[in-house]
Amino acid sequence: MADAQHIAHLFAMSLAGVLSDEDKQELDAWINASDDHRLFADEVNDREVFLSDLQTLQPGYLSDREQQTLARIKAELFPEREIKYSMHRIHFLKTTWFRYAAAIILIFGIGAYLWNTQQKAKPLITSTKPVPVKNDVLPGGQKATLTLSDGKKIELNNAASETITDGSLSINNNNGQLVYGQTGRGEINGSVVQQRDNGKIAYNTMSTPSGGQYQVILPDGTKVWLNAVSSITYPTVFTDENRTVTINGELYFEVAKNIHKPFIVKVANQQITVLGTEFNVNAYTDEPVLKTSLIEGSVRVGSQVLKPGEACINGKVFITNIEQDVAWKKGVFSFSQADIKTVMRQIARWYDVQVKFVGELPTGKLTGKIDRNLTLIEVLDLLSQSKFKYTLEKKVLTIFPANTSK
After folding, report:
1. pLDDT class for 308, splitting at 50, 70, 90?
2. 211 and 175 within one domain
3. Domain finish residue from 237, 257, 281
């Protein structure tokens, strides 16, 4: 991957118009080394092919807002057949064909990345297959643990459909999603079944490990996505005046509307109250802040009322980057001027590895999007370019300064 990154670096400087004479000679030599390289270089300058490739990638890698922005740009810049393109955001791509492109985009993302309408570019294509790495770590997946009201624990995954019984309650587990039957009133099959013989409300808890994520549809129809190392505790039926759950970690909510029963999320020392809305809560204990981001609707966090596009961070309201806040739900890491420790906390949770730092920490900031379906080494190869070196042994990831002789 090192050679690919170096060539990507040369292409990046060439696209930016800052390639030195010496580097140009090296890049020209690489281009002229084979017919495949020459074809590859020609495609870099084919703006029409670039646009075609970008359109192909849209469904999986662009948010709704980005697709709307792209449509507007096309309407303004492509009134005829001439192809021009202006892109201010960066996207890391999973496919092997786009490995060179990912490296180039990373380079620009570290600074103020901008492809203006005079530059010609396309995602770089290579037929080179990735070489398996002995100690690589696969990405996380659909796995969680469900703790029933009697304390019994059930391991969940995305295997075939199964029915779980908790007393007289039936719960369906299918393809990474746990579903409680609901009638729209927070009841199961029209009857209140959460009362045990002792008269206490029955609670279930779903928790995800490092390298796990899962979805649960609660008895009232509320949809909840759990990121890695997260949990939610909830009654098997909502019969009180409100719908109250307790969480830890990071979760995304699509709350079923019920004006008669507010939905309440208890987390750390905060309480979030909603009627029906979409929001994300990041409450990892190893993160420096507790952050609630509102996608749509309205929520009250303590005494603060949020509007869409706002976040409550440690009790104060700020404008936030929603696409970045909820990127994990779409299968993407998203960083914006993030330091190495912030990045590695996410890496550790998703790949279930222990991260150690040796020597002086890299001071640069990282900006970009990376597919969470990549293997750990694929992600590290993108992140580490010119910033740091690393070793990976028995799920222990050690980060070294870039100038370390490793």
Report:
1. very high
2. yes
3. 237
Within-domain flag for 39: yes
Domain count, the chain: 4
Residue 128 lies in a domain: no
- Cα end-to-end distance, the chain, whole Å: 16
Using one digit for the tens of pLDDT, what is the confidence trace for 313-349? 988 999 999 989 999 998 889 888 888 999 999 999 9
Q: Are 226 and 248 part of one and the same domain?
A: no
pLDDT of residue 130: 38
> Does residue 72 sit in the same domain as residue 30?
yes
Same domain, 207 and 160: yes
Q: Pick the more confident residue, 207 or 76.
A: 207
Triad 386, 392, 396: Cα angle to 5°: 120
Contact call for residues 50 and 121 (beta carbons, < 8 A): yes
pLDDT of residue 55: 42
Give domain status of residue 285, yes or no. Answer: yes
In this structure, is residue 118 part of a structural domain?
no
Has residue 131 got a pLDDT over 90? no
Q: Quick: pLDDT tens for 349-384.
A: 999 999 999 988 877 778 778 888 888 988 888 887
45 and 81, same structural domain? Answer: yes
Instruction: Among 237, 267, 301, give the residue marking a domain's end.
Output: 237
| Domain span including residue 275 | 240-330
- Percent of residues, the chain, with pLDDT higher than 70: 65
pLDDT for position 336: 82
